[in-house]
From TrEMBL:
Keywords: Cytoplasm, Cytoskeleton. This is ALMS motif domain-containing protein. It comes from Propithecus coquereli. GO terms for biological process: regulation of centriole replication. The keyword Cytoplasm applies. Its main location: cytoplasm. The lineage of its organism: Eukaryota, Metazoa, Chordata, Craniata, Vertebrata.
Length: 103
């Protein structure tokens, strides 16, 4: 019997693949109940992975704590740039004063 099975497998190698469920390759749709009033053909509800990431990112960025954190970081950058500008201005002013005193 085992030899017969081996012989059948060699003759029909694609038979094992047909035993797999056919629905695995198809996208799944919601099927309306035949007795319900809502008998429209539903749209495909599957969304791509990229869309899912974009949606999650958009929702995350709209959270109040995330907005607050970004605002604080923006203010910190502005303060830092202002300090650097003040330092540069101070150096320029000192250079001008020293040049005037030297002449």
């Amino acid at each position: 019997m085992a030899q017969q099975r081996r012989a059948q497998r060699k003759e029909n190698p694609g038979q094992k693949q047909s035993l797999l469920p056919v629905r695995a390759n198809k996208k799944q749709f919601t099927v309306p109940h035949p007795l319900s009033d809502n008998l429209f053909k539903p749209k495909e509800r599957c969304i791509s992975e990229k869309e899912m990431h974009m949606r999650s990112k958009r929702i995350y960025n709209n959270l109040p704590e995330v907005k607050k954190k970004k605002e604080e970081q923006r203010k910190r950058l502005i303060l830092q740039s202002n300090r650097l500008r003040a330092e540069v201005f101070k150096k320029q002013l000192l250079d001008q004063l020293l040049q005037r005193n030297a002449v």
